[in-house]
Amino acid sequence: MVEKHHIIPVWFFVGLLLLIYGVMILASGLAEWSQPSDVVLAQLHAPVWWGALLVVLGIIYCAKFRPGRAD
Amino acid sequence: MNAPLMIAADATLVQLRGVDLAIIAIYFLLVLGIGFYLKRFATTGEDFFLAGREMTAWVAGLAFVSANLGSLELLGWAGNAYQYGIMAAHWYWIGAIPAMVFLGLVMMPFYYISKTHSVPGYLKLRYGPEASALSAITFAFMTILMSGVNMYAMAVVMEVVLGWNLHFSIIVSSLTVGVYVAAGGLFSAIFNEVLQFFLIWFGALLIPILGLVETGGWSGMVARIHQNFPGENFTHMWAPMSSPAHNPMGVYWVAIVFGLGAVQSMGYWTTDFLVVQRVLSAKDVRSAKLAPIIGSFFKMAVPLIVILPGLLGRAVLPWHLVPANQAQPGQFKYDDVLPLMLARYCGPGLLGLGITALVAGFMAGMAGNVSAFATVWTYDLYRPYLRKDAPDSHYVSMGRWCTIIGLFVSIGAAYLVTRNKSMMDYVQALFGFFIAPLFGTVLLGMLWKRVSRMAGFWGLLAGVVSSITIFSLMKVDERWVSVFALSPLAQPLAQAMWQALWSCITCVVVTVLVTMVTKPRPDEELRGLVYALTDTAHEQHASLFHKPAFWGAVALVILVILQIIFW
Description:
The complex is a heterodimer. Chain A is mainly alpha-helical. Chain A has helices at 10-31, 46-64. The longest helix of chain A has 22 residues, at 10-31. The radius of gyration of chain A is 16 Å and the shape is rod-shaped. Chain B has a single domain (3-537), classed as Sodium/glucose cotransporter (Up-down Bundle), CATH 1.20.1730. Chain B is built from 23 helices and no strands. Chain B has helices at 3-10, 18-39, 45-50, 57-66, 71-84, 97-113, 119-126, 129-162, 166-204, 206-215, 217-228, 253-271, 273-280, 285-301, 307-316, 337-345, 350-385, 392-419, 422-447, 453-476, 479-485, 492-516, 548-565. The longest helix of chain B is centred in the first third of the chain and has 39 residues, at 166-204. Classes of the chains: A mainly alpha, B mainly alpha.
């Protein structure tokens, strides 16, 4: 998608959003580790592993599609 | 009942904390930032209205499927899954996949090669101004109304789910959409749709995962549904359709196969310009053919985050949800199932992500409508009928103003719906009046070169009139339901399928009859527009894995396997 206009690929923005959200959700999950929120299956600590997954995917997308990277 | 849900029953469905609000705020800042960033690239008409025709098959394919993955659809279809069971998945499988493959392999080459900006634009080239103007005026009018309905629906959901003020939601969301679409045109709309696609998946996927953990897998969920609703069949797709009396939708399999699969979905996915515009942004014919097929694989997976949460709601929620028109204060309705499931499993942070996905879905829906409206108004109405020979920059400027004006009209429509809520059902029904006959007109035009200019117009008009007539008769007197839907038990979804089928048949019959008594257009005027006179690239030298036809076949095989699994 960069042939004519050299636009930053949309995948970079996807990665950025996933990374930011991943960090926030992971931090929120860790903060409530000892006192989980009152939801069903809270003992599984879903925010921690879901946040970690978002962080990993976000880093991969940001690195692979960062502006200026030669394909 | 756990604590958050008790709060929900008393006040709002969910309560957000600081981290959730921060997640929502970051989304708004990011889309506005992307809009301003993309403004510098949207300088020509092709840039603004067709995103420069440089999108890869993946981006165009995701935007194509995402344009249909708005929050109204998510909430509504999760509610339908709760109400009708897994039969609701027909709208994602037989009601989408064959049409997407057909669009990619058969219809897209004509749209793309003719270099049209829109579906009415294709009709103008193929038939002339009459059919094109009828299609453009109705599309522009309905698109803007639909944008208003989307806006109103979002504000209501935010009010019910979060307790947000109705006016606040309408103003903030429409201003944001107005700024980023007016700045970047279709570039902005497509970027936002791709972001929305990821948000929706990551915001909603935890619900089925945790739901299946709670119920002990698929078989555990089915056992719980049977225990909670003995004697009712919510977990089979085809087996209960031998008779309308055997399924909660009151439908025969014939209506699903021919009404939904062959007409309604074909009409929507191949002629609704809102979705087709995304594919027209592809960088070449092969990408344009591949984009809907890529989209079909993602579409096949959507029931995981929409239908499964509805079914899980039947299995795990401690109350029975009710239809919207029967809900008493303190009772939850079918369409609340997705927010209820979100509140059940998602604590701070994850809740913010889920709500952001819903907000993003609503805003992408509005952006899709206004960007399609701006294109059809500028290229199919303003340029041919009001100002023919203006410079390209004038049309870009018109597109930007149209976006802003379109949003103000949408806000007006939203407030109109606020005053008269039954309007919402009728505006949504309006779309159904035009889509099925339009499919007949476009398809006949592509495949049969003999169809004449006036046959296209009269066929389309007859189809639309028949659709409105059938809809009105079934609403006025329920006895007509037995006549048109072949069963008095047919529910609104089943009625809509039959309405689509009859109106398309009417359109085709009238088009053929008028063609027989009118003069065809000369061959040289139809090159690149009809099958017999167009050299569509067949990619003879491409490897198997690079051929759109191969991936289309794979999509259809997976579709058949899914039907057998969930028979």
